[in-house]
Amino acid sequence: MDLNDAPDYLSAPPHSEAQTKAEALDYDISVFEMFSIGIGPSSSHTVGPMRATNRFIAELIDAGTLTEVTRVHIDLYGSLAATGAGHGTMSAALKGLAGFVPETIDIAAAEALMDRNQVDGALPLAGYPLAAYADGAPGPGATRVSGPVLIYKEADITLRPLTVLPRHTNGIKVTAYAGERVLLERTYFSIGGGFIVEEHEESSGSTGLSMAPYPFGSGEELLDMANTAGLSIAQLKMENEKTERSESEVRAGILHIRQVMKECIGSSLERMGYLPGPLKVRCRAGQWHRDLLAEDPQKSPEFAIDWVNLIALAVNEENAFGGRIITAPTNGASGIIPAVLHYALNYVPSVRHRGQKVIDDAVVDFFLAAASIGALYKKRASISGAEVGCQGEVGTASSMAAAGLAQVMGGSNEQIENAAEIAMEHNLGLTCDPVGGLVQIPCIERNAMAASNAVTAAKMALRGDGQHRVSLDQVIETMRQTGEDMSHRYKETSMGGLAVNVVEC
Questions:
Q1: CB 342 within 8 A of CB 315
Q2: Can you say how many angstroms the Cα of residue 300 is from the centroid of all Cα atoms in its chain?
Q3: Which helix (H) or strand (E) holds 89?
Q4: Which of 55, 60, 48, 51 is nearest to 182 (CA)?
Q5: How many CB atoms lie within 10 A of CB 263?
Q6: Which cofactors does it use (predicted)?
Q7: Nearest-5° angle of CA 303, CA 307, CA 309?
Q8: What is the DSSP string of 253-286?
Q9: DSSP state of 439
Q10: Model pLDDT, residue 41
Q11: Which SS3 state, helix, strand or coil, does residue 34 take?
Q12: How far is the CA of 132 from the CAs of 9, 136, 200, 288, in angstroms?
C-alpha cells in the first residue's frame, strides 16, 4: 500500500489536548484522532516523542534557524526515561529530529538511519523526504527543508526517571544550540494515544470538532442528545464528524484505517521466531493462524473466541516489532479493537455473509460508536498508562470495543452505553507493569483477554434492556480516581508488579 494514497486528514497528528477535568467539555474529539496511523511499540513512548521532536524541528524551520543548529540535547522525564529503552523512545525522538512522522514514516529508511547513527553518530536534521512543516506533519506540495548533519552521541540524551514534571509523567525537553547559545528550548508532554501538548500550551477545548452540533461532555449527555435527536450513537458521531469533512470522506477515512489494521495483521502472521529484546518471547500468531485454518476453515461460531484471541495477538506482536499500527486508542491496547471488529464482521448474523456494503456500514458504525466512548475517557479521565495504569489503555479500548460491537449488533443507545460500562468496570485497577519496559509481557496476552471481555460485555448488555445500576460516567470517574490513587510503581515505570517479579533472561 502506498501511504500517500491515504486521505490527507489521516496524515495529521492528533491535536494536542490536555483538558483539565474541571473545564467545559463542549467539543468532540474526531474519530481520526482516537484512531491514527503510527508505529510501534508505544503511542505515548514512541509516537508521542517522535511527534514532539518533529514539531520542534518545524519550529526551527519556521524561524529560519535550522541551519544554525550545532547540537540538540534531549531530556526524558518520568516514565519516558524509566521505560524508554524498551519502548524505543530514544530512537523515536531521533527519527522525529530527522524529519520522520509516525503517520507516513518509511520504517526501512528510518531503521537504516538508526544503524548509521550507531556507527558514526550522524543525524541529519529534517534530512528525509518526510521532513517537518509548520503543523508538525508533511502536507501536499510542501517543500523539503534539510538542516545540518549533527554528530549525535549518547550523552546528548539525559534520562531522568525519578523526576516527574508537574503536568504529566511523560515529559520530554528538547534544546537546540548554536555553539553555546540556546536557539530554542521546548518541553512537551506525551499524554497518551500519541497526543502531545507543550508545556505552556493552553488546554485545547476549542480544537478537535469544536463546531460539532452535539458536543457531549459525558455519557449522560451523549445519551440525552442522541435520544432527543432520534439518532444512534454512531449516527450522532457522524453528524459531528461532518462539521469538518463530508460523509463520504469520513467513510473513506474509516475504511482506510480498517485496511491498515488488516495489513498489520497480515504482516504479523508472516513472522516467525522471537520478538525483539532480551525476553525471548516467541511469536505465536503465525502458528496459531495456521492451526486455526486447519481446525476451522469455515469460521464456525465454536471457534469465535479463538479467532478474537489470534487477531489481538497478531496486532500486538506486530506492535512489538515496531511495525505500522493504528492507535486504538493507544499502541499498547491496539489489538483489542481489530479483534472485536473481526468478531463483529464474522459472527454477527446481521453482518456475516451480507455483502460488502453491509460490511462497510458495520465497520463505519463500529468505529464511530467506539470513538464516541473513547472521547469520554480522553476528556474525563485519561488513556495514558503512565498516568492511570493499564486500565486507561486496555480498559478504555475494551470499553470502546464493547460499544462498537453493541452498535453493530443492533443495540439501543442505552445498551451501547451499558456495554461500555461493563467492559471498563471489570478492568478497574489494572496496572501497567511491563517486564523489561517492553510492550510484550503482559501486554500482548492482556489484549486478547480484554477483547474477549469486550465481546462478553456487549452480549451481556444486549440481554438486558439498557437499564443498569452503574452508569458509564460513574465508572469513568472511578477509573480516574483509581489511577490517581495508584502507586507510580504500577504506572509504566517497570518498578513494580510483574516487572520486578519476572526474571529477564
A1: no
A2: 31
A3: helix 89-97
A4: 60
A5: 14
A6: [4Fe-4S] cluster
A7: 115
A8: HHHHHHHHHHHHHHHHHT--SB-SSTT-PBP-HH
A9: S
A10: 95
A11: helix
A12: 16, 5, 21, 41
Kindly give the pairing relationship between strand 196-198 and strand 149-151.
unpaired
The C-alpha cell that represents 57 in the structure block: 524541528
- The cell numbers describing 172, all together, are 520530554
Q: Say how far apart CA 461 and CA 366 lie, in whole Å.
A: 16
Domain spanning 42-198: CATH 3.30.1330.90: yes
Task: Look at residues 367, 351, 379, 370 and name the one whose alpha carbon lies nearest to residue 476.
Answer: 379
Give the pLDDT confidence score for residue 134 in this predicted structure: 37
Q: What is the pLDDT of residue 151?
A: 83
| Dist CA 14 CA 375 (whole Å) | 12
Query: Which of the residues in the chain have pLDDT under 70?
Result: 1-26, 128-146, 202-207, 504-505
CA distance 254 to 360: 9
Predicted TM-score (pTM) of the model is 0.89
Give the residue ranges of DSSP H helices in 270-335.
285-295, 304-320
Residues 1, 259: Cα–Cα separation, whole Å: 9
AA identity, residue 490: Y
d(CA 392, CA 310): 23
Amino acid occupying residue 71: R
How far apart CA 125 and CA 183 sit, in angstroms, is 15
pLDDT at 200: 82
- Measured CA to CA in angstroms, residue 499 lies from 76, 243, 274, 378, 432 at distances of 21, 45, 19, 27, 9
Task: Check the CA dihedral 159-164-167-168 and report its sign.
Answer: positive
The pLDDT of residue 198: 94
pLDDT computed for residue 27 by the predictor: 80
Whole-angstrom Cα Rg for the chain: 22
Rounded Cα distance between 32 and 74, Å, is 29
In one letter, which amino acid is 35? Answer: F
How are beta strands 71-77 and 157-160 bridged, if at all?
parallel
For residues 432 and 500, the answer to whether their CB atoms sit within 8 Å is: no
If DSSP codes are grouped into helix, strand and coil, which group holds residue 91? helix
Scanning the structure block, which residue is given the C-alpha cell 529503552?
A: 85
